[in-house]
Structures are given as structure tokens and as C-alpha cells.
Design a protein that fits this description.
6-stranded mixed β-sheet, disordered N terminus, alpha+beta, 8-stranded antiparallel β-sheet, 9 helices, 35% strand, globular
């Protein structure tokens, strides 16, 4: 019954990333969504009203709701993704608020990695920019199936229909080269509130849904539940106490799919097989468990299993390989160096790797592959060939976002320098 309750909760939740260039109005849009959907506490709204009055504003400046992040930036603290929660009668939402500066592209990739939808803001006066195309490209590479282009600041173009349609056509033509399943565009004014939660009366020519209506009705793919069973072993539990002398369990989080007691499994990369004997959780024993539950699995047979191994269904179609190709978003100021070794963090294991070649780099102007490049620079995205020191259990990213992704770490600085998706 616990599994069933969990599945219900997942269907009701939409995670989306809000991205856009600096000054496109993302902070104001998030504030407007929270304010007009009545997701703010009274003390939060009172604090914004007081701060706005001190700045001489006649109306509450809703962008101040993200001031914590802005203050971090002013203090030179590392900028991270901020998550905002709100709910309506139809659905619960988690907004991943991604910084807009180009140098924080890594944060946008982090925010997008768990999102089911991307809202990309575009200034109605400027149209799609290079940063717009970069965010769209990253969202597509990270497997986000749906994107909403929020054409903001319509109040600064007189709410003109032709201004919106020019931006809409430019964005949709560019995004057609990407792998989005659905593309929607909505004109809005985050400052005035038109077409965010309420329709307003200044764009009667637009008959489509508001931004909130789109968010409430978009389909949510429960890809993790439908994907094949994947259980990276995080810890081997052997208490070694008299009452549990022979106890041996494998702890971790189910990254995708489900498993039940009595099912045959295989441990990779060794390929040895066994049967699930028990499934334990903090709340008790289960007959069946599903992603993303954290559990301990007990097997019928004594197998050599250690951290980093992957438990899958016996007979599953899984690739175990030391070489692969991947789409890599390079995040470090220092370019990718093909002569160096790096570390790859993939599920629960860390492995030395070498990038043996750059197949191509993606031109963020046309969103199409360019000729082979000798190296990737900061914020470049390209297809690379990788050779790992030992075999990895890999899924294509398009098939499984959890086991098809990895991060690249500089072994000297311990800095995350890249985010990869297995091709």
C-alpha cells in the first residue's frame, strides 16, 4: 500500500525549471506566480511590501522574493539553484530557479536535470538571444520533453500581437532542431500580471491558456516508474553482531523501475544472478518497492557485491562498457584537455576516465553540430568519446536519465567540470 500511495503523490507533482537571460524578468515572474496563486505567507508579503516602500515603489516589487539569491551574489558566495514550492487546487509544483548569467550555466544544467518541463523567459523587445538558445539546448539534451517560451515584458511593447508572434516564430523555428516533444508560447507581463495566473484585459487577441493553466494541465511523464529496474548499490550492510551474525543487505535508492520479493536479479558488472529474498525500509518490510524509494535488498544467495555495483532484473538489456560516447556540457573555465585524466561520478561509483576525442561541438546559434573541435571551452556543449578505467553499467540518457548521466570531476581541484549524457 505504501508503494501505491507514493505513486499517487508523484503524478500530482510537476517539477519545472525557470530559465532566462539576465534582466528578462525571471525573478518577477516567479514572484508573480507565487503571489497571484496565493502561495505566499502573510509575513512574506508584508516583508516585500515594506522593502518596496523603502525603495520608493508604489506597488510590491515581487522580484524581491528572490532577494536571498541576489544577496548571495552580491556577497560573492557560490550561487546555487533555488527551489520554490507552491500548489494550486490541481497540482503541486517545484520551481528550480536557475541563475541567468552565462557563467552560471552549470547551475541551469543542475536545475534542469530533475525537471519535467522548462519555462524559458524571452524579453519581448529582444527576442531569443544566445543565452535563450543555450538554455533550450541544455534542456533538450537533458531530456526535458516540453518547453514553454514565456514572452515577457509585453507591457513594454504595447501588448502588441505582432511583437509576440515575431518572437514566437523565431523561437519555435530554432527549437524545431531540438528534441522537444511539445513547444508552447505564451505572451505575458510578469510586472503587471497579465497572462501569468490571471488573463488580464490587455491582450484580448490571445485566446490560449495562461502560464499557470499550461503548468496545471501539461502531461507529466512518470519516466522513473516506467523505466527498467536499476538499483546502484550504495552500501553493504553487515552489522556483525550476535543477533544478526549472518545478516547481509545491500542499501541504496531505486533509481528507476520496481522490484518485488521472489524476482530474479543480476548483479553487474559480474553478471551473477540471485533472487530477492526480502525488501527492508526504515518504515518496515515491503513485498514490492519502486523508484525513488531507499531500501535494503536481501538476496537468497551469497554473492560478491560491493558499492558501485548495479542490481537489475535478470535478463535485462543493459550495456556494460568501458568506452562510450556522450553529450558533454563543459562547465569549467579551463578548457577540456584531452591529455589529462578526469574522474566520472556515475550513480554510486567514481571512475578514472580519459576523453579520447571530441566528435563535434554544437553551434549555439544554429543549434546544430559543427565540425570536430579540438577542445570544449566553458559552456560549450559537444559529443565526446570516453574511455573508462573499468566497465560502467550504462543506459542511454534518452532511456534513463538517472543511469544515463554523469558528472566529470577534476581530480586535482575536486571541482565539477562537466555534465554528461550517455549517447
Amino acid at each position: 500500500m505504501k508503494v501505491g500511495r507514493f505513486e499517487f503523490d508523484r503524478v500530482d507533482l510537476l517539477r519545472f525549471v525557470a530559465a532566462g537571460s539576465v534582466d528578462d524578468g525571471k525573478s518577477t515572474l516567479i514572484g508573480r506566480l507565487l503571489h497571484d496563486s496565493q502561495a505566499l505567507l502573510e509575513d512574506q508579503l508584508r516583508a516585500v511590501e515594506q522593502a518596496s516602500r523603502k525603495r520608493g515603489a508604489a506597488a510590491p516589487d515581487l522580484s524581491l522574493l528572490t532577494d536571498g539569491l541576489l544577496a548571495e551574489r552580491e556577497q560573492g558566495i557560490t550561487i546555487d539553484v533555488a527551489y520554490r514550492h507552491f500548489a494550486t487546487a490541481r497540482r503541486r509544483f517545484i520551481i528550480a530557479d536557475a541563475p541567468g548569467h552565462e557563467q552560471y550555466t552549470r547551475n541551469m544544467a543542475t536545475a534542469a536535470s530533475t525537471a519535467s518541463l522548462a519555462v524559458i523567459l524571452i524579453d519581448a523587445r529582444k527576442g531569443p538571444t544566445g543565452q535563450t538558445r543555450r538554455h533550450a539546448c541544455i534542456a533538450s539534451l537533458l531530456g526535458i520533453p516540453r518547453v514553454i517560451a514565456a514572452v515577457n515584458k509585453m507591457d513594454l511593447v504595447g501588448y502588441a500581437r505582432d511583437a509576440f508572434e515575431t518572437v514566437r516564430d523565431s523561437f519555435t523555428q530554432g527549437a524545431a532542431a531540438l528534441a522537444f516533444r511539445e513547444i508552447a508560447c505564451v505572451p505575458l507581463s510578469a510586472l503587471e500580471g497579465d497572462m501569468v495566473v490571471k488573463r488580464g484585459d490587455r491582450m484580448p487577441w490571445y485566446e490560449g491558456p495562461t502560464l499557470l493553466e499550461l503548468l496545471e494541465n501539461v502531461a507529466v511523464d512518470d519516466v522513473y516508474r516506467r523505466a527498467d529496474f536499476r538499483f546502484p548499490v550504495q552500501w553493504v550492510c553487515r552489522p556483525g553482531i550476535p543477533d544478526h551474525h549472518d545478516f547481509r543487505a545491500y542499501a541504496g535508492r531505486i533509481e528507476s523501475g520496481a522490484v518485488g520479493v521472489g524476482e530474479r536479479i543480476a548483479v553487474l558488472p559480474s553478471g551473477r544472478t540471485s533472487t530477492i529474498r526480502r525488501i527492508l525500509t526504515f518504515d518496515g518490510e515491503l513485498s514490492r518497492a519502486a523508484a525513488p524509494q531507499s531500501v535494503m535488498l536481501l538476496l537468497e544467495d551469497e554473492l560478491d557485491v560491493s558499492r558501485g555495483d548495479m542490481i537489475v532484473k535478470a535478463g535485462a538489456d543493459v550495456r556494460v562498457a568501458s568506452v562510450c560516447e556522450a553529450d558533454l556540457c563543459w562547465l569549467a573555465e579551463r578548457p577540456l584537455d584531452l591529455r589529462r585524466q578526469y574522474l566520472v561520478k556515475h550513480t554510486t561509483q567514481t571512475v578514472k576516465i580519459a576523453v579520447t576525442g571530441v566528435r563535434y561541438r554544437i553551434d549555439l546559434g544554429s543549434l546544430r553540430p559543427t565540425d570536430a573541435a579540438a577542445q570544449l571551452r566553458m559552456n560549450d556543449i559537444g559529443r565526446v568519446a570516453i574511455r573508462a578505467q573499468r566497465p560502467l553499467v550504462l543506459d542511454r540518457y534518452a532511456r534513463n536519465r538517472s543511469t544515463g548521466s554523469f558528472i566529470v570531476i577534476d581530480p586535482i581541484s575536486n571541482e565539477t567540470v562537466g555534465a554528461g549524457m550517455v549517447a
